[in-house]
Design brief:
Blueprint (H helix, E strand, L loop, with lengths): L4 E2 L9 H7 L9 H18 L4 E6 L2 H12 L5 E6 L2 H12 L3 E6 L8 H10 L5 E5 L11 H8 L6 E5 L18 E5 L10 E6 L1 H9 L9 H8 L10 H17 L1 H21 L15 E5 L6 H10 L3 E2 L1 E2 L8 E5 L6 H17 L8 H10 L3
Helix pairs in contact: 1-9, 2-9, 5-6, 9-10, 10-12, 10-13, 12-13
């Protein structure tokens, strides 16, 4: 028998409490029982988003709310500034272009952090820009962008909305939606919310609602106002993912019980232990020191080692599923997720499997050094 461990940045492991809640008999979505559960879910989302404004919930993947943000905030031909230092920044640019927006492309290497000063310069040169789009926690690269500093810049432009993809950020890193002036913030269920894929949520500020009022882009299923009007009646405009909503309440209860600050601190500790463990093995981290997030740790594959073989061996031989690199970094990096339902010993197990995998592939290092380094973090040394 082989016990399996899911150590990817999404989907992430689902706690037993959440699984059991979802296994309960299905209830009808147009009943007082579901309305009560749905209202609880919306309030719980506001807690993790750190907002008193509107939070909308959709039956979709994270890409659905990424598209919804574009469709609901802009008019055809609007100018938007899109930052991209990873696969999901690339996706936001593609969505904006599909909807006929004029994109000012702030492109970086995947190993770089988005510079707030570049955004300030772009806005000074294009004061008519209607939006800035940035990924807070870039899943493909592990880079954490400073959306707090970017929020301070964009708030000075009353007609420009700041759209933040925090799909792997919410629940793992601090994201003070209201305090930082973030107009639209997005997340997905299969990340820090500790659910299976299928739900996505976003916040909408007053500035974003003003952008919605002038928007003329086509929208139907993802029309924000349909959701807002129904949420005010504790219901949904379309058939919701009932079991996932019930599971969401279970996961949000767990986050509340731990306390959001403690949840974020736990993720920081897990990330630090993973990074130190990998460095102790002589491996080089992918994300720069000034911009490392707590959701996922990407690592360069060492010279002479088959990167795809690392991912395959860890899964097939040791039962530990990690993620490989994406696009140009396929086979060149591997990514260890620690987002959501993870504890200290998940990291220890993963590092042990990594050590055995690397040793089997001929990489030379001091056995046990990665595990020892991680233990030191967990023991406060």
């Amino acid at each position: 028998m082989k016990k399996n461990y899911l150590m990817t940045p999404g989907p992430t492991p689902v706690p037993p409490e959440v699984l059991l809640t979802q296994a309960a008999p299905i209830i009808h979505h147009r009943t007082p029982d579901f309305s009560a559960a749905f209202a609880q879910a919306i309030e719980g989302l506001k807690y993790v988003f750190q907002t008193s404004g509107d939070a909308l919930l959709f039956a979709s993947s994270g890409t659905g709310v990424m598209e919804a943000a574009i469709a609901n905030c802009f008019c055809a031909g609007d100018t938007v500034i899109v930052t991209r230092n990873g696969k999901f920044g690339d996706r936001q640019k593609q969505i904006a272009e599909v909807y006929g927006l004029e994109v000012i492309d702030l492109a970086y290497e995947w190993t770089e952090v988005v510079s707030p000063s570049d955004i300030a310069s772009a806005l000074e040169a294009n004061p008519h820009a209607r939006g800035v789009v940035v990924t807070q926690s870039e899943t493909s690269s592990g880079v954490l962008n400073d959306v707090k500093a970017i929020g301070e810049i964009v708030r000075e432009y009353p007609e420009c909305v700041l759209i933040v993809d925090s799909i792997t950020g919410i629940g793992a890193v601090d994201c003070k939606t209201d305090e930082w002036g973030l107009d639209v913030v997005m997340t997905g269920s299969q990340k820090g919310l500790m659910l299976p894929p299928g739900l996505a949520a976003c916040t909408v500020s007053e500035k974003a609602w003003r952008a919605y009022e002038r928007s003329d882009l086509p929208k139907y299923y993802f029309d924000w106002m349909k959701y807002k009007k129904n949420i005010e009646k504790d219901t949904t405009p379309f058939t919701p993912a009932v079991s996932l909503v019930l599971g969401l309440n279970a996961s949000l209860t767990m986050i509340r019980e731990e306390g959001l600050e403690n949840t974020i601190a736990r993720h920081a500790r897990l990330a630090e232990a993973t990074r130190r463990g990998c460095e102790a093995l002589g491996l080089e981290l992918f994300a720069p020191p000034e911009g490392r997030g707590s959701a996922v740790t990407p690592v360069w594959v060492p010279d002479g080692v088959d990167g795809k073989a690392i991912v395959k061996t860890m899964k097939d031989t040791y039962g530990v599923t990690i993620a490989g690199g994406q696009d140009d970094y396929t086979g060149r990096i591997f990514r260890v997720g620690h987002l959501g339902y993870f504890g200290d010993f998940d990291i220890i197990t993963t590092l042990a499997a990594l050590e055995m995998t690397l040793a089997g592939l001929g990489y030379e290092f001091e056995r046990g050094s990665g595990i020892k380094a991680a233990e030191a973090v967990f023991m406060g040394e």
